[in-house]
Amino acid sequence: MRVGVVREIKTDEYRVALTPAGARELAEHGHEVLVETGAGEGSAFADAEYLAAGARLVSCDDVWGGSDLLLKVKEPLQAEYGKIRAEQTLFTYLHLAPAPELTAALVTSGATCIAYETVETDDHRLPLLAPMSEVAGRLAPQMGAMSLEKPKGGRGILLGGVPGVPPAKVVVLGGGIVGYNAALIACGMQADVWVLERSVDRMRELDNMLGGRITLSISNRHAVEQAITDADMVIGAVLVHGARAPHLVNRAMLGLMKRQSVLVDVAIDQGGCFETSRPTTHSEPVYEVDGVVHYCVANMPGAVPITSTKALTNVTLPYVEMIARLGTTTALRSSAPLARGVNVMAGRVTNGPVAESLGYELMPLASLVEGAAA
Question: Among residues 31, 95, 247, 294, which one is catalytic?
């Protein structure tokens, strides 16, 4: 199979979908690997490393036009819509629920579009989302701490305080992978950390994992309102699998918060969990609404591309190898987790939350895969 890797064109996106080590694995199993010239530069992978791994360096158009399986990190942008082919499999983060234009383009393309974030194991783990959730969770307090600095528009408070001066209060909404990692780092920065979570069982796990160093509270509207009132930083870390994130903080609630406190919306890829959130970039990461600073960078892990690219390839490569070895259709028949990752195929939406969010008729994947050629 011909596997293609393109350079990401999203603003301030430095990750690449495949490391040279991953390219070598594919090449040694007889697959042709096409890598766009310069695709790995942002992650410190030189073209020469891909050549040494057995890949071919080609132009952007040659990757799109010559690949059976096209690997990306982020969703295609408008300039890439017309390059997607019906006979192609696209494997990348898609986050389609809040993206009607992208979804329409993928439907029109006829391609098979598999989203990293909806590949789901039988025990409900999201193995291809997890490493980037870990990275984003660990970045969130770090980015929020910088946004709290006075020259950046924040309140001017040090997260950990100093002897005689209390630390900042950090509220984390959601206790999943993002929330746990955010709390872990915020604790390490010696902040006063609160985590709001809906599951009591998960709260017990977090209490054990974090050694009782955080305050845990059940999450509901009243608890959120109380927690954010004296918070210096609020980290939105909620996930509804495949669907838009719920708005846990609406605009009216901003009036409860301290002036120049900071909201960090890690759920922005799924539409954001604060009503006033809108996507920002690493170049211009923050804006202010009603006196509250918003940090809503839509590709947070792109700030640390060396770490992120390696972590991503670690988990995606086994699925890439499966598709390359078996062909897309046979791979989807063979792997239920991979099949759950399909969002669009043959011009139809096959993911329930995406179909519901955007008003598409849901087409069961089995009816498309059945009888299709591998």
Answer: 95
Residue where a domain stops, chosen among 258, 280, 298: 298
Q: Can you tell me whether residue 49 is helix, strand or coil?
A: helix
User: pLDDT digit string (tens) for 258-309?
Assistant: 999 999 999 999 899 999 999 999 999 999 999 999 999 999 999 999 999 9
Catalytic residue among 31, 192, 269, 294: 269
136 and 277 both lie in a single domain = yes
**269 is an active site residue:** yes
Note if 95 is an active site residue.
yes
Do 321 and 251 lie in one domain? The reply is: no
- pTM for the complete prediction? 0.92
Give the Cα separation of 19 and 246 in Å (integer). 35
- Count of other CB atoms within 10 angstroms of residue 220: 12
pLDDT at 374 over 50: no
Residues 137 and 251 in one domain: yes
Out of 275, 298, 321, a domain closes at 298
Q: Which domain holds residue 54?
A: 2-125+305-369
